[in-house]
Every structure is written in structure tokens, then in C-alpha cells.
Amino acid sequence: MNTDRPSLKREFLEKHNFGDCKIIELVPDASRRTYSRLINKNGDSYILMDAPPEHESVGSFIKVTNTLRSMHLSAPEIIHFDEKEGFVMLEDLGDDSINKFISNNPHFEEEYYLKCVDVLSTVYQNFSEHNHYDNYDINYFLKEGKIFADYCIYSPSRSTTENEELNHEYKELLTSLYDLILEPTKKTLVLRDYHADNLHILPMRKGVNSIGLLDYQDALVGHPCYDLMSLLEDARRDVGAATVHKCVDKFISDNSFDHQDFMFAYYIWALQRNLKIVGIFNRKVYRDGNLNYQKFLPRVWRYIIGDINQPHLMYFKNFIEKVIQPVG
Predict the structure, then answer these.
(1) What pLDDT, in 10s, does the model give residues 220-246?
(2) Helix, strand, coil % (nearest 5) of the chain?
(3) Domain ranges in the chain with CATH number 3.30.200.20
(4) pLDDT tens digit string along 152-186?
(5) What CATH number is given for 98-323 in this structure?
(6) Helix (H/G/I), strand (E/B), else coil: 247
(7) Residue 73 and residue 59: Cα distance in Å, rounded?
(8) pLDDT, tens only, 204-221
(9) Cα(89)–Cα(76) distance, rounded to whole angstroms?
(10) pLDDT (tens digit per residue) in 100-141
(11) In the chain, which residues fall in CATH 3.90.1200.10?
(12) C-beta separation of 211 from 194 below 8 A
């Protein structure tokens, strides 16, 4: 396998008559993917995704894109792709992420967050390809939970036996957490990274089409609360309390969920996701030396504190207090 990404990238661009385009490298995200903006001689702009196949397949991104576009949602159009080498050329949805836009225009927060809720309702009400995707089952649940164990529970100040016992206790708690989840009547396509940096404002489009979607290649079939929770318990920004309440109420009302059952599951998935995020960000900081992620950790810990203070999750609070830090 040719692992010279620059030469492979050049070959891909030349094959599709983009060899002479201007290339602007974009800020990388937390994954191994990189992105470039391509500007051709006519001034038209496209995005190139470079996803080394030894780390992930672009096939999943292409599949989810096709599913979302079949619902008439604004996932980027795929212009060209090479699945074997891991390149995808995409429609450019611009730079106006919801996070960036609302930071400069905070009075628009509620309006755009409610549009994002409408996108989730569109997915929930139209998704029918359950057999084409894996289920967000206990195996995924525990695999993600292990990231917290690896980068937050282990301590060199404890003996190997003590660390192993704590890891075992944590896995049992995580398994019991999954067992609490009540299966919804209907599952949905869970995009899994649905937050303000992956959602872009497209002002020339209307309704749900005015929200551009990105970074959904890891989608699974799962609980409809998950992406709403991901949107509202955002590691990178605080969402106003009034906006949170209106979004939750709208999604529950528009899809006829039982409020109590929905919120019961919401906080379970929130706790699991936030523990995973703390683990990922600790890994970025302490293993990879990327200190930029350190500033997000206090916010995610606040979410965890809120989650474990829910009546059905109090038993997890004792473990967090014992292993990590006092929790208020």
C-alpha cells in the first residue's frame, strides 16, 4: 500500500482535473482525518477529505451521506471519491458553524438550535434503513466507556491490583447503566457527533435545509435522545438553559415521546457520552500533548455532575467521588 499521502492526494486531484487548484489546509479535528479547501480557477470552492484507510473507511461516510440526502437534508454533495485510497471531494458548506455564528450573534441561539431539533425530527420520522447500520448496542457502549477507564481511572499512585479492581468495578457499573435503558418504540439513525461545530448555517436555504451536516460517518441505529443530548450537552460551548428546555420540549412533543421515559434515557446516554469525552480529551492532552482540549474539560465535568445527580444515576456518583474527585 502506498502510504505517501501527499503524492496520493496529488494523483487524486490531477485525475479529477483539480491539479492546478489552490489548496488551503483547514484546522484538523480530533480524528485522524484532514481537510483541505480546494479553489479552482473559476473561484469555485470544494472540500477534500483525506482519511487514511488504515485508520478508517470513507465508505461509511458515503453511506450516511446518501441516507441523509435521501431525506432531503443538507449533507454535502459528494463530487468525487476514491474509497480505496480514502479521498472524498465534497460540496463546500462554508465556514459558518453554528458555534462560530452564535458566538458573534448570541440572540440567534434559540432560532438555530430549534432548527437543529427539526433536523433530528426529520431523521427520526424518515429513517427506515435499520438493516444497513450497526446497532448502538452494549458492545459499543462498553468500548466507548473503556476510554474513560484508560485515561481517567488508572493512577500510578495506586497498585496494579487496585487499578484492576477499580477498572472491574467501573465495567460492572457501566454494564448496569446500559441495562437501565428502556428500548424506545422506534429507533433512529444516531449521528453521534451532533453539535454546534459540526452543524453549519446555510443562509440561502430554508427550513431544515438551512442546517449543513458534517462528521457523521460513525452513525449507528440507536435511541432518539442521543443526538439531542449531544447537541445540548456540547463540550465546546454552553447552551442557554431556556434554549435547552425549549429544544427538549419541542423534540418530545413533535415526536410524541413519553417525557419521563425519554429523559430517563437521555441522562443515561449523557453520562456515558460525557465520560467518553473526558477520556478522549485526557488522551489528547496527556498522550498527544494537545493542550487545546484541556480548556473543555471543566465544562464536561459539569455535565457529568449534573448527570450523576439524577435520581437513577446517583449510584454512579459514589464511584466518581472515590476514583476521581469530590463531586458536588
Answers:
(1) 999 999 999 999 999 999 999 999 999
(2) 55, 10, 35
(3) 5-91
(4) 888 788 888 988 999 999 999 999 999 999 889 89
(5) 3.90.1200.10
(6) helix
(7) 19
(8) 999 999 999 999 999 999
(9) 10
(10) 999 999 999 999 999 999 999 999 999 998 889 999 999 999
(11) 98-323
(12) no
Q: Which three cell numbers stand for residue 294?
A: 484541556
Whether the pLDDT of residue 68 is over 60: the answer is: yes
The x, y and z cell numbers of residue 162, run together, are 487496585
The full 3-state SS of 24-89, as one line of letters, equals EECCCCCCCCEEEEEECCCCCEEEEEECCCCCCCCHHHHHHHHHHHHCCCECCCEEEEECCCCEEE
Q: How would DSSP label each residue in 131-199? A: GGS-B--HHHHHHHHHHHIIIII--TTS-HHHHHHHHHHHHHHHHHHHHHPPPPSS-EEE-S--STTSE
Q: Name the pairing type of β-strands 199-201 and 211-213.
A: antiparallel
Phi, psi at 303, each rounded to 5° = -60, -45
5-91 — its CATH code?
A: 3.30.200.20
What pLDDT shows up at residue 307? 96
Of the candidates 44, 8, 9, 12, which has an alpha carbon nearest to the alpha carbon of residue 25? 9
Distance, in Å, from the CA atom of 303 to the CA atom of 306, rounded to the nearest integer, reads 5
Query: All 3 cell numbers of residue 252?
Result: 418530545
The string of pLDDT tens digits covering residues 241-260 is: 999 999 999 999 999 999 99
Res. 324 pLDDT band, cuts 50 70 90: confident
Radius of gyration of the chain (CA): 21
